[in-house]
UniProtKB/TrEMBL annotation:
Protein name: NADH-quinone oxidoreductase subunit H
Organism annotation: Saccharopolyspora montiporae
Signal peptide (UniProt feature, chain positions): none
One example of a Gene Ontology biological process annotation: aerobic respiration
Topology term for the membrane: Multi-pass membrane protein
InterPro entries named in the record: NADH_UbQ_OxRdtase_su1/FPO, NADH_UbQ_OxRdtase_su1_CS
Gene Ontology cellular component list: plasma membrane
Residue ranges with Basic and acidic residues bias: 428-437
Keywords, ordered alphabetically: Cell membrane, Membrane, NAD, Oxidoreductase, Quinone, Translocase, Transmembrane, Transmembrane helix, Ubiquinone
Task performed by this protein: NDH-1 shuttles electrons from NADH, via FMN and iron-sulfur (Fe-S) centers, to quinones in the respiratory chain. The immediate electron acceptor for the enzyme in this species is believed to be ubiquinone. Couples the redox reaction to proton translocation (for every two electrons transferred, four hydrogen ions are translocated across the cytoplasmic membrane), and thus conserves the redox energy in a proton gradient. This subunit may bind ubiquinone.
Underlying gene: nuoH
């Protein structure tokens, strides 16, 4: 048992309840602030003010929207499965709250005279808990789409299931290199292993894979295919309203906070202060309550990354999204894990000196770059002109080489009655005399 786990195991019941309430309050407040922050940042990116009426800088706008949702009419479709329809939002929101319990927010502190760590529970398999919670959370989305009794939510839920399966594998593979270097699955142990260097510098490829996977895992743009409004109206939550819709909204943003906090824990040193500040006073800023400030500052940095992607990139096609996960992230992650294992074995066995290792690595990277630059790419054959005119749905169309004449044909003037030989007693005069004009 680690020192942090031993310290947490001695917590009295009142302190455990206090931590549970604090985690819930922090996640809800961060959700409110994150929605406001996203709308303000997107407004600045699109040259508009964003929310600026309710409260200073519009900061109370999200609270007003939440109260409005609570008082909206709760509508349930006639074809919906009642109990599963009600249970799905709860299943989606609960794992999002539970997964934050293994995240270390800070080191040892004193709360009302009781020594403890700023972490609810420290498990030897903390990373597996986060993956398990992410896997259970998708059940809420799938059940919501299935129980709504509508085709659009069902399609969105099926997309979400395929998406989570694909990108959870890539996310799990990005953990392996971190586990190899930290030597533990405990989140507090991983943070302790980064006291002298953060893992995003040591394992850059794992960091990039996790960034892509966490966006796909949370169904955020440009990977928001389960709720694509241009295709599926609203996706899996199309038939939800009032507080049930608010629970899905809450689950999405809490998941964003959780994966951002996990990225901070795995790759940015957790609660450790950044490099210039960590040297002040022989690490005094890594003690007490200061580390909680560094932790949430790094987490907000990742939340800004989510917002930045949403305001910058368009939504991917579904086939492109699946190709990215299965054809690039998963195979390259497997190769990266093999390379990391070989490098660690070579260094631990002392077969080469650190200088030789760095020189060899530099030469290998240079050779790979030269191969990529010098090897010609695959040439695609020129496209042949279509043998038959293209059409939508197989309907006949005019020939593609049809040209419009420069001067249209002259219209023949209308023939008058005199030209046709009809006189005053003709049909026209009879119609007029009968009163038919």
């Amino acid at each position: 048992m680690t020192e942090t786990a031993q310290l947490i195991s001695d917590d009295p019941l009142w302190l455990i309840l206090l931590k549970v309430v604090a985690i819930f309050v922090v996640l809800v407040v961060l959700t409110l602030l994150c929605i406001w922050f996203e709308r303000r940042v997107l407004g600045r990116m699109q040259h508009r003010p964003g929310p600026n009426r309710a409260g200073p800088f519009g900061i109370l706008q999200t609270l007003a929207d939440g109260l409005k949702l609570a008082f909206k009419e709760d509508i349930r479709p006639v074809l919906a499965d009642k109990w599963i329809y009600v249970l799905a939002p709860i299943i989606s929101a609960t794992p999002a709250l539970v997964s934050f319990s293994v995240i270390p927010v800070g080191p040892e502190v004193t709360i009302f005279g009781e020594r403890t760590a700023l972490q609810l529970v420290d498990l030897p398999v903390g990373l597996l808990v986060v993956l398990a919670c992410a896997s259970i959370g998708v059940y809420g989305i799938v059940l919501a789409g299935w129980s709504s009794g509508s085709p659009y939510p069902l399609l969105g839920s099926l997309r979400s299931a395929a998406q989570v399966i694909s990108y959870e594998i890539a996310m799990g593979l990005s953990f392996i290199a971190v586990i190899l270097y930290a030597g533990t699955l405990s989140t507090s142990g991983i943070v302790a292993a980064q006291a002298n260097g953060w893992f995003f510098l040591l394992l850059p490829f794992s960091f990039v894979v996790y960034l892509v996977a966490m966006v796909g895992e949370t169904n955020r743009a440009p990977f928001d295919l389960p709720e694509a409004e241009s295709e599926l109206v609203g996706g899996f939550h199309t038939e939800y309203s009032s507080l049930k819709f608010a629970l899905f909204f809450l689950a999405e943003y809490i998941n964003m906070v959780t994966v951002s906090a996990l990225a901070t824990t795995l790759f940015l040193g957790g609660w450790h202060a950044p490099w210039p500040l960590s040297l002040i006073g022989d690490g005094v800023l890594n003690t007490g309550w200061w580390p909680a400030l560094w932790f949430f500052g790094k987490t907000i940095l990742f939340l800004f990354f989510f917002v930045w992607l949403r305001g910058t990139l368009p939504r991917l096609r579904y086939d492109q999204f699946m190709d990215l996960g299965w054809k690039f992230l998963v195979p390259l992650s497997l190769l990266w894990i093999m390379a990391v294992a070989v490098i660690r074995q070579v260094r631990n066995a002392g077969l080469v000196s650190p200088q030789q290792f760095l020189i060899g690595g530099g030469v290998l990277i240079a050779v790979l770059v030269l191969v990529i630059l010098l090897v010609p790419g695959r040439r695609t054959p020129p496209e042949e002109p279509p043998k038959a005119p293209l059409s939508g749905g197989g309907y006949p169309v005019p020939p593609l080489d049809l040209e419009v004449p420069e001067t249209p044909a002259r219209r023949t003037p209308a023939r008058t009655g005199a030209q046709t030989g009809e006189g005053a007693g003709g049909p026209r005069s009879e119609e007029t005399s009968n009163g038919h004009v």
